[in-house]
Amino acid sequence: MSKPLRAVQIGAGSFCHEFHAPVLSRLASGETPRISLEAICDLDIERARMFAKEFGYARAYDDYRRMTAEVEADLIYCMVQPTATAAVVAELLPRRIPLFTEKPPGVTVAQAERLAELATDHDVLNYVAFNRRAMPAVLRLKEWAAANGPVRYVRAEMLRNRRLESEFAIGTAIHPLDCLRFLCGNVTHVTTRTNPYVGGEACDFHVRLCFDSGVMADLTVLVDCGITREQYAIQVQNRMMEISLGAAYACAFVPPGEKEYRNNELVLDRAAPADPLITGGFVGEHNCFLDAVEKGASVLSSLDDARHSLRLAMAVQDGYCGPMDQYVPRATA
After folding, report:
1. Three-class SS of residue 224?
2. 133-275+312-326: same fold as 5-130+282-302?
3. CATH number of 5-130+282-302
4. Which among 230, 152, 162 is positioned nearest to 184, based on CA atoms?
């Protein structure tokens, strides 16, 4: 039996506490652990110590450079704030240690492009945590489309309540945009319509995407509509499958699951599993990363691919309409 992979982690924030750390703790326990949690680092040393105690990390640090110098690691998990991601990941990639990082890969297209270049230059395995790609329902939807196509139309919606951030498309709506890329392929043309809210910088987004496969998709993003829900639907001739995401992405009264319709009949109605770490894709993405490290399997999302999703989210945030190959990000315009 192979030894567990030695893992260190940078960042101990609330999102990691709720979703990533519980999965890593599972992977480090049981009769055949896949990893060992060697160390956790956070700028707040007390928070790092509490993380270590709660989830089973062997040591706690408040300086990631000292941690990575002192602790021998087979894996690095980077869970820092988006504004810090580019600098930290750029420093880690030359170490050539397999790296798992939260999305987005930087906060500008230039940062994302640079990280993708560094990953290629140093030939380091990397994974970007766009968790929709690892959700079982999304994977089944993708498989269903491949088996029943050709796809005629795709629709997605992200409904949120009191989410009035000025750059919601980049921080959050990047998820359905990335998911649509995962389902449909390369985006060739985008048409964005925005509907601003009075007295602030927030707005709703109505987006039409055209893909190089010829498929067209519509995405509606409503940031303050009184309900939280996220759905995806794919239509082929005389058939349609739709999925509704579960906990953390929907109100308690919105049932998560999968439905398939054919000839005006409901032919599949499958409820989502109760475990949000499974339905949310967190178990899947961490296992995918470890499979890539251990077995050379492909990853669901890399820095090279994730840069295109960030670029698309920037275009939508800018209200861009036109070919994606002609879009100039505002940060570099």
Report:
1. coil
2. no
3. 3.40.50.720
4. 152
Quick check: 331 pLDDT over 80? Answer: no
Q: Amino acid letter at 56?
A: G
Average pLDDT rounded to a whole number, residues 308-312: 97
Contact 57, 39 (CB under 8 A): yes
Question: CA-based angle 272:296:293, to the nearest 5?
Answer: 75
- The answer to whether the beta carbons of residues 153 and 216 sit under 8 Å apart is yes
Q: Which two tokens stand for residue 9?
A: 């982690």
Q: In this structure, what token pair is assigned to residue 29?
A: 């326990």
Q: What is the chain's mean pLDDT, rounded?
A: 96
Question: Domain-by-domain residue ranges, the chain?
Answer: 5-130+282-302, 133-275+312-326
Contact 87, 110 (CB under 8 A): no
What dotted CATH number matches 133-275+312-326? 3.30.360.10
* Angstrom distances, CA of residue 12 to CA of 51, 65, 75, 110: 7, 16, 16, 26
Q: What is the pTM assigned to this prediction? A: 0.96
User: How far apart are alpha carbons 317 and 192 in whole angstroms?
Assistant: 9
Report the run of H or E that residue 265 belongs to, with start and end.
strand 265-271
**How buried is residue 226: exposed, middle or buried, by Cβ count under 10 Å (0-12/13-18/19+)?**
exposed
In whole angstroms, give the CA distance from residue 65 to residue 35.
21
